[in-house]
Every structure is written in C-alpha cells, then in structure tokens.
Amino acid sequence: MNLPRILIVDDEEEVRKAYLSILLPQTVSDGIDEMASSLFGSAEKEAEMDEMMAFFADDGAEMIVEADLQTGTYEVDQASQGAEAVEKIRYALQENRPFSLMFLDIRMPPGIDGVQAAKEIRQLDSEVEIVIMTAYSDYSYKEIIQTVGNPERLLYYRKPFKSSQILQLASSLTQQWYLERKCQEQDR
Fold first, then answer.
1. Largest CB tally within 10 Å, which of 38, 120, 123, 133?
2. Domain boundaries, the chain
3. Among 132, 133, 122, which Cα is nearest to 90's?
4. Looking at domain 5-187, which CATH architecture does it have?
5. Are 163 and 127 in contact, with CB atoms under 8 Å apart?
6. Angle of helix 163-187 relative to helix 13-23, nearest 10 degrees?
7. Which of 41-55, 81-95, 106-120 has the lowest mean pLDDT?
C-alpha cells in the first residue's frame, strides 16, 4: 500500500519546515522542532503526540484503522505558490498518485491566492481534502465555500496552531480519504 500523500502549500519556508517537522518528525532536525513549537504552539511535539496516542489507547476508545495505514506515516510534498500547487495536483493525478490532503495558506504573494488555487484544484480533484490555514481573514468561510465548493472536503483554520492539531487533522482526514476510496473500489 502507498503512504497517504499530503501537500503543504505556503509561501513562507519556515512554515513549510514546521509542517514537515510535525508530519515527518524522524527526518527533520531538532532546530526545526523548536521552530514548529513557536509557530504552532508552545507545548513540546513529543508530549502532544504521546497525549494524542494515549487518547486513542483509552479503554472504550475505538478507531477504525486499516492495518497497513499507520498514523503519522505520510509522503509529504510542498509548494510555495498556489499555481505550483495546482500543477503538483495535476501531475499527481496523471501519475495516478493523488494527494489525499493538502494544507493551504491563503496569502501567497505574488501569485494566485489560496482560495483561487483551491478552486482550480477542486476542478481537477474533487476528492482531495483541503484544509485552508491562515492568519488572515481576507475571506469569510461562506465566501470560501461559494468559491471552492465541496464544503464536506474543506476545512478552515486560523493560525497559529498546535502540533497536535496538525497531527489530528492529518490522521483523521487521510484515513477518511483512504476508507472512502476503498469503499468506492468495492462498489465497482
């Protein structure tokens, strides 16, 4: 089985590195972990992961997880501009290796903004889970939904975030995407 694919789209390199340190902790240096903590919250990433894993290990807590799909194991790619993200989505679909999730910033000058990028991406791939993450409120959630469409696959969060929020979103949304695709295959 292929790993769930996540696309990070933000014009700030430090923010992209912070996502990487959260989603791929074994491959990124300790200095980036500190940066992730400052960008996404003050709690230590490992403590947050332990807390999250303890939550799922509590008695009575059940989670449907495909045996081969391990929480926290992803293939992550990144883009610094909206147009670049659109091209990465297009290429991934041509290669039959679609992204299951993308974290997308709104403000990415000088190119198209995240809402326009999401609209173009949605026209290419109606199934990708999109999480718009921004520190600015250039658009209302209603305006974003009207522009992008498919609100059941669109979330909107304000920065700053905690590492645990990114991990929870990644785990939940990639698992949801995977299970929906598996159901679609069985229906054929």
1. 133
2. 5-187
3. 122
4. 3-Layer(aba) Sandwich (3.40)
5. no
6. 70
7. 41-55
